[in-house]
Each structure stands twice: as structure tokens, then as C-alpha cells.
UniProtKB/TrEMBL annotation, chains A, B:
Species of provenance: Pedobacter psychrotolerans
SUPFAM superfamilies linked to this entry: lambda repressor-like DNA-binding domains (SSF47413), Periplasmic binding protein-like I (SSF53822)
PANTHER family: HTH-TYPE TRANSCRIPTIONAL REGULATOR GALS, LACI-RELATED TRANSCRIPTIONAL REPRESSOR
PROSITE patterns: HTH_LACI_2
Name listed for the protein in its UniProt record: LacI family transcriptional regulator
DNA sequence: CTGTTAGCGCATTCAG
DNA sequence: CTGAATGCGCTAACAG
């Protein structure tokens, strides 16, 4: 059976010791080039690949990292994964992906299942930053961990996130400059720093411009699609806002649908601005001003950060990395 | 350090042998309940979890499966992943995910990196069923493998797919029954059985109803967003079809955009039907008749099939599993 | 019922 | 420069 080609087999065929083969394969300085070449050639010829389990056991490294996220079917996360994969491949690592579906129990369950050395490190984007602070406080001591996007503030850990507050502030100012005075806010991620920061940015921008948040104009995201649609429809018909600030992409379609159903012309009657990582968002409606997060880059940064930790490069500098989002205005539509 | 809690440590603390601990942990019939309880209690107390690398090395099993797909950011695949994860968790397995981005080289590279026992089995959805038949013909002998959705016909392997031909036929008949006579076809996945089957179903349905495929009304998907939009726009303005049959979800937004730009009323001037796994597709436009694949179920089936193989349950019956898609008509809009 | 032993494949001492 | 020996943590014969 040629199926069982291991270091021992190579040693036998070449009439040298196992140790020599091992060293040769790892390009050790102790081995002559001639021997190395013999080993490398045969290895290639026999299609040798090291047994990962054995390496893992010996080295206590798995060449695998885990990514824990709420969903994969999400423009932000899927792009982030792409960035993570790119870096992981660069470092020769494999990527385990776990979807929590925003279920905190599952999040902990997955995480716990990784603590026995199945992975070298974890990239996580949590479902809530409130309910299990203690858990994570403890966890960061046990395993190399980087939070990305959905992070824990005030935790002694590495965070990679975006400038939610600033971009939200800017976006709001933009709406105000477009003449909007009655801006409704579609609130998402309310128990996460990102969600709170987005709202704060909105709030502060209003205040700094002599406006105020009207609670009646704030809607909170719920799981039920129809329910979200209804909430927005009711808001529109009862309060006639002149703009919608959507803090998460999930609100875009119901917002459009509601506007269309109620004959609100976009952007003439109502402006819409949304956090959105969908490249085709503007195709859907050219008047949609979007806040686009650097999802791919966040993935790359987070992974890079993790590998710095793994390689003991200390990472010296600050533990928080903040990347800038982009406000993509649609000038042609007057907003 | 309590970090190093292994079977040896348990044995020492309890003054019994390592073997006994191992058997107790695995609930062997050879061990007395009393001893088992002592072991289990201490294990829980010390938070013992077995070292996966050691188990892997010994048992030649990794409790890990790999999923190789073109993209994760795709409604079909992300749902399929959910199904796969569900089954994997049921069997206590972890899931490695690889995105090929339709790059065949990368597809092979990832696959090759898994052949050294890093995973127990592979679920794959290939990027092409033409260019590397030999590769896969060889591969299926080396590793437990299940193809799903994007499969290789005529290969001695397990396939899990959908009824592309039939549903495409039915959908076309539906359009014809709605009075459409000049149906344009937006062709995707052309080098995959699924894509070909969809087109054949369309073709045959036309023929069986006294119509014919007009090559001028067939557009093929390209990577470039703008290009797709242009293709459709040109088609619409030059040939004025009365329906669009979109064989992949990626065509939906450009199709809508083009129609809107050219003032084609949907569904009055032109009907649109599309393969689409987006739950919110009808929100986007209530007149969109969709062909929905059972993505989640495909994931479940494919994974179940793989575990049957892994558990040597032979799986006896046929190697091809075909699940039915659903044609969701929008009666309210007259089509 | 429990313990002794051997070995999975590899990497790393330490001798030569 | 090369090789013999050891052990990572766990499981599985085989003995007792």
C-alpha cells in the first residue's frame, strides 16, 4: 500500500535513520545538502505529507484557527472570512468556522470545545457583550483570542473593530446637511458596543446640530421579518420622518418595501442611509447612501493580529485596532 | 499548573492506572460503575478534556470534516453550511470550511491539503465538472467524499443534488401558461451539470410547447457586475422579451435594475422568474416567482450521507440523492 | 474488574 | 554530519 508513506518508510527506502529524515524534511542545518536532496526527492516522489495528528501531538500546535461568528450568510462576515482565510493560508493554517446564530449558549459551547488544543487560536465576533463578560475575562487567559467587530470593551484582549461612532456621526451630519430634520433610527445590535456606538454617533450629531432624538422615531430590530416591516410601516405612516438611518443592513429591504408600499418617494420624500456591506446595494437603489465597513480588511487585520500573538511577536503596540468605514454618498440623487 | 490535566494526571490523583482511566472515560464495560464514577467526577472537577491530537494519532480519526465550496457569501451555500453544521454537531464533528472562489487550482490545492488525514471526510461543491475529472476519479478512492449541488455525473461517488431539470421545465411551462412567448434565458453555471440541466429543462419545455430557444435571447453570466447589467439592458432594448428566466440568483438584481432603467413594468411588460434562495426575495419585489432549492436539507443530506460512509453503514442504496426544489408562484401578480 | 505494555508518527535531545 | 533513544497523550491488546 502506498497509502502509508511516513517518515519511517522514507528512512527505510533511503537506508538512513528516521531522525535524519525528520531533520532533513525540516531543513535542519545539521544535515548535508546531499542527504536533504535525497530525502526531498523521495518525499516528493512518494507524495509524502506529514501526519498532522502526529505533528500536533509533538509540537502542541495544530496549524488551525477557529472563527466564531453569528452567521456566515452576512455580507460583513462572509467578507471578513475571506480576509481571514487569506492570512491563514499565508501562514499555512486551516480555518474552522462556527456559526452561533446569535445563540450565546452555542457560542460558549463551541468555544469550550476548542480549549483542549484543537486550535492554536480563536477569532470571535460575539453575540452580546453583556451576558458573559466573566466567561471571556477568564477565557482570554487560556487561549490566544482576538475579538473582531463585535467586541468586548474594557477587557484585556485584542480588539479589531471599526469607527462606528465617527462614521455614524458623519452620516447623520450628512443627512442633516441634506435638509433632514426628522430622522428615524433603525436600531440594531443594541447589546453590542458597535450598536451602541452607532446610536451615540447619531445622537450626538443631532444634538450638535440643534436636534434631538425622538424615541418615537426609534425602532429596534427583531428577528421576525414581517414584524420589522410592520414597525417601519407604522413609523412612516404615523410620524412621516424625512429620513431613515438604518444601523444594520438587515433593515434595508423592509425599509424599501415599506416606503414603496406607502408611496414614499426615495429620495424625494424620504432619504435612506444604511450600514451596508453589499457591493450591489447601489444597484438595488441608486439613491441609497451607504456606510461600508472594511470587512475584508477587518478579517485580515484580526487574523494578522492573532498570528502575531501566536508567533510571540508580542504585537507590542495598542491592543485595539480601529479601521475606518466609508460613507458612500450618491451625489446624483441630491443626497 | 492545572492547565496540564490529562489522563495520566487523573490516574495519579486516583491511584489507579492510566488504562483504567482511559477505559472509564470511554465508558467501557470492563470498568466498575464505582470506578467510572470516581473518574468522571474528578474529570469534571478538573475540567478534563481529551487531547484531540493524541486521539487522532491513535485512532486515525479526527472528528473533523471539511466543506469545500465556491463561496460562503451565497444564500444557497450558507444555508447548506447550516445544515451540514447541524449534522456534524450531532455526530460530534468539527467543520473546516474552504472557499475556492471558483478557482479550480485553489480547489485542488485545498483538497490536497486534506489528504493526509487532517479530516475524516470531505463535502465538496465543485467549480467545474469538466476540467479535472481525472483528479476526482482518483480522489474518491482516497478519501470519503460526497459531492453536493455541484456534482460530477458519471463518477463513482455519492452525489446530493436537486431536480434542476424538472423544476426548470416546470418553471418554464408556468411562464408559457402565463402567456409568455419570447422568454430570455440568463445562463449561469454553464460548465456544471446543474447549469446544463436547468437549461435543458428550459429548452425542452419550450419545445414541448411549440416554441424554440432563440440564441439571441440567451445571456451568459460573467464575473463583472456592470457587464451583466449591460448584457441584460441590451437584450431588453434590442429584443423586447416578455419574460426573463434567471438560472442563478446573481442575475436578479441586474435584471431588475435593467428593467427599471428601461421602464419595463414588472410583471405587466415582462415576467421574471429566478432560481433564488433568498428568503426575502419576494419582499424585494412581490412579483418575483422563485425557484427555491432545499439548501438546508441538501446540507443535511450530504452530511448524513458522509457520516453513513464514515460509519461504514455502507449506505447500501443508490449513490445519488435528489431533493426537490420548490416553485413559489406569486398568484397575486398574475404570474 | 484492573494493570502492564506497546505503539500511533513525529521531533528532539544526546551520543557518536 | 548521522543515528539511537525518548516521549507527546491516548487506546488497545493482552495478562492477571
Amino acid at each position: 500500500m502506498s497509502g502509508e508513506v511516513n517518515i519511517k518508510r522514507l528512512a527505510q527506502e533511503l537506508n538512513i535513520s528516521i531522525a535524519t529524515v525528520s531533520k532533513a524534511l525540516n531543513d535542519s542545518y545539521e544535515i548535508s545538502l546531499k542527504t536533504k536532496n535525497r530525502v526531498w526527492d523521495l518525499a516528493k516522489q512518494l507524495n509524502y505529507t506529514p501526519n498532522p495528528a502526529a505533528s500536533n501531538l509533538r509540537s502542541n500546535k495544530t496549524k488551525t484557527i477557529a472563527v466564531i461568528i453569528p452567521f456566515v450568510a452576512n455580507n460583513f462576515f462572509s467578507r471578513a472570512i475571506k480576509g481571514i482565510e487569506e492570512i491563514a493560508r499565508k501562514y499555512g493554517h486551516h480555518v474552522l468556522i462556527y456559526q452561533t446564530h446569535e445563540d450565546i449558549e452555542m457560542e460558549m459551547s463551541f468555544t469550550n470545545s476548542l480549549l483542549n488544543g484543537r486550535v492554536d487560536g480563536i477569532l470571535t465576533s460575539v453575540s452580546s457583550s453583556e451576558y458573559n463578560l466573566d466567561y471571556y475575562k477568564n477565557l482570554v487567559k487560556k487561549v490566544p483570542l482576538v475579538f473582531f467587530d463585535r467586541v468586548y470593551k474594557d477587557l484585556d484582549a485584542y480588539n479589531v473593530a471599526t469607527d462606528d461612532y465617527e462614521i455614524s456621526y458623519d452620516a447623520t451630519v450628512h443627512l442633516i446637511e441634506c435638509g433632514c430634520k426628522k430622522i428615524a433610527y433603525l436600531y440594531g445590535l443594541e447589546n453590542l458596543p458597535a450598536g451602541k456606538a452607532r446610536f451615540s454617533g447619531f445622537e450626538d450629531a443631532l444634538q450638535d446640530n440643534g436636534l434631538m432624538v425622538d424615541d418615537q422615531l426609534v425602532i429596534k430590530y427583531v428577528e421576525d421579518e414581517e414584524q420589522n416591516l410592520k414597525q417601519i410601516s407604522d413609523l412612516l405612516s404615523q410620524h412621516q420622518p424625512d429620513a431613515l438611518f438604518s444601523s444594520i443592513e438587515e433593515f434595508v429591504i423592509p425599509a424599501y418595501t415599506a416606503c414603496k408600499a406607502l408611496k414614499f418617494q426615495i429620495p424625494e420624500d424620504i432619504k435612506i442611509i444604511s450600514f451596508s456591506n453589499q457591493a450591489t446595494a447601489h444597484l438595488l437603489n441608486p439613491s441609497l447612501t451607504t456606510i461600508t465597513q472594511p470587512a475584508f480588511e477587518i478579517g485580515r487585520e484580526a487574523a494578522t493580529c492573532l498570528f502575531k500573538i501566536l508567533n510571540k511577536k508580542g504585537h507590542g503596540d495598542d491592543q485595539d485596532i480601529i479601521l475606518k468605514s466609508t460613507l458612500i454618498k450618491r451625489e446624483s440623487t441630491g443626497c
